[in-house]
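User: For my dataset I need records formatted as: sequence, then structure tokens, nothing else. Please produce one.
Assistant:
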Amino acid sequence: MEKAYTWNRVRRKAPRRQPDSGWNPRPRRYKAVLLVVVVLVVAGLIAIPLVLAPFKRKAESFDLREIARLEEASIIYDRYDQEVNRIFVENRLPVKLEEVPDHFVRALVAVEDSRFHQHKGVDFVGIIRATLLNLQARRVTQGASTITQQLARQSFELKELSIQRKLVEAFLAARIENHYSKEEILEHYLNRIFFGHEFFGVQAAAIAYFGKPVSELDLAESAMLCGLIKSPNNISPFRDPVRAKRERNYVLDRMLEEGMIDKAECRRIQAEPVRINPQPTSPRSSYVYDLVRQQVFALIGSERARGGGFRIYTTVDDALQSVAEESLRRHLNRVEEHPDFDHLTYAQYAVQRKAALDAGVQPELPSYLQGAALAVDNETGGMLAIVGGRDFVHSQYNRALQSRRPPGTAFTPFVFAAAFERGFYPGTLVRDDFMDNTQVMIGAEGGVLGEWGSETADARFLGNIPARQALVLSKNAATVRLGFQVGVPAVAEVAKRAGIDSDLGEYPKMFLGESEVSMAELCKAYTVFPNGGSRPSDLHIINRIETKQGLAIYQVPPRIVQRVEALDVFASFQTHSCLQEALRSGTGKPAWDMGLQDISDLAGKTGTSYQFKDAWFAGYDSRVTCTVWMGFDQPKSIYRGAFSTQTALPTWIDIMNASRERFPAAAVQVPNQLKAVEICTVSGKVATDACYEKRASTPQDPTPRYLRTTYVEYVRRGTTLTSSCTVHGKEGGSDLVNPLQAGMVAAEGGIIPNTSPPIYVREESIVGADPYQSVVPPPPPVEIAKTDGEEDGPIEVKGVKPRIVFPTGIGEDANSRLAIPPPPPLELE
């Protein structure tokens, strides 16, 4: 049987020793090995440079001057030179190294490159150490890139994960070390490094996370920022404060190991919580930011604007902008809570949109209730606040500038302005009565024209009323009748001069605002009333653009801010006086109860469209004009009865209240050539001393009292008025009483009967001059005497006794009108 052997049992037989012949093979073998080694080393020394040569040539191709050419954000300022936003690809604010605290630099070196001051760009000791630690951990736990290598990577976009990129980076780091000092390398690095979100450079990061410049950071804050560098977005305290604290504490441990801080200080700071205090800034995603950005790109180019560090000065009032955005959102939410609102709400859409995004599906465009607001400077046309929609993230469509919608009855002031330019005046009587809808064809070709413009569900027809009252109460039928007297072309021409460039169409429905206009057009057009008939040529939002050295490269052209004469100054003021009354006692009267402050010099007009599809409010004071709109992108009824007083007016009130704190206004001045005339509200004619009506008594006050039925109207010289009132003073009437014939005396709260028996004039008994005008002849038609250069004061009316006219409102108590001045001289003709 064959015997089996194992390696541990086999013992080799020693060879027989040969006689010494003088030959030894070992030296020759060693020489051969040594020769091979030498050949390999020589070959390596020759081959390695040849292999590395392409990477070195690529590293030498980079222009090192690019390291110092930092992209700097262009900053947007409001009208008070306060920063409100930035235009950038990389949000960066460069700083000098001397502005950075020493403890920040020590923290950075400790965690990122502890041998920064010893190596020449590449740390071979660090590479060996990191390799051993990674092998020991069986995963990559340590990096070996130096600060200089990171600067090379950041400056020249060396992002590829490959050995080839690392070789180029190493050669480039060596070049940087030869070209820049250590201090310069640190400064460039600190201005380039990414700190998460959109913050590049240590200054932008300090302001973003702590709300203060880097020079004011303490050691804990500096350590936290240095801890972000290896994975900024993941470690961000905005996203993961626990991990941010852990990385901060690791930086402090590294500083302790390097002997940069003592143990007590290290442990004390590590025990502190992470505290962040981000600077409040406007979001980049907003309508006002997007508008500024687009206009800047059009003016100087997008690439230049993103990295040129320009200073962009706008007309925006940032505080007013915030009020407009917040108020519009709040009141839109309130409208959605109305019991008759049965559409998709904002909150419901937000849930649907999130579900679609989570499922990887493109969400549908929003169909919830939208809104827009625009406030402008009357003098220059500068936009003070602009809100183009409810949520810019959901929809970037700017409804304040791009959308065109029917303004509804907010358009009617231009009908009255056209009438006043053509010889009518606010006291002109117009008929408020049923009207066949065939006249305007709004909603149907027949039937009765609706009265939605009056802002009430139970509107009543009032018969013959002054044009002023028709505008103040927004009476649709009366407005259309006046419009027909003026003519469609005349109204369209006035609207175009006022700044409405949209095609209004040659149809009577234009009188009630059924033609579509933009919010910017309507807002600009309304500035003619506080501006005495003129308006800015156009609206704008950018005043000037400067380089960071202060050189102006754009200034708003004079042609944009120059004033354009758009409307007769007298017609402008007459319309303004009606709009002022509309806000006091007309359709805008609810503003009092909604918190509108100090409305003495405010004016405005509601704007409700047919079927309540669009709700507007447009109004102004002498400094600011503001318009607000609510409605759907795809027109449909908000809900039945959604008048603008309940929808758009509250936001307008918030904006105007805020604007009046920042832009103090004065009363709109009466033109010199307009005269105040007292008009009877019942007859629409020049008032007499008999224009009083009996006020109903109450159980608490049974004493009969009488109120003056007049108001002050402004009339241009040369206007022919109707005769004086012939309604009041008739005998036998219980409600229409001449107080002088009834023998009444003044009392607080009105006029009460006198207990003394009255004395009546039976016949004319004065012969010759009648200085006290005890006899008044029947008045002929009244014509305002037209005198060039005449001073304001009492009106001398041909054929009618002179009288002093005291400003008053409709229905003012007669007690305020008892101060009778001495009679002026009477010129008999």
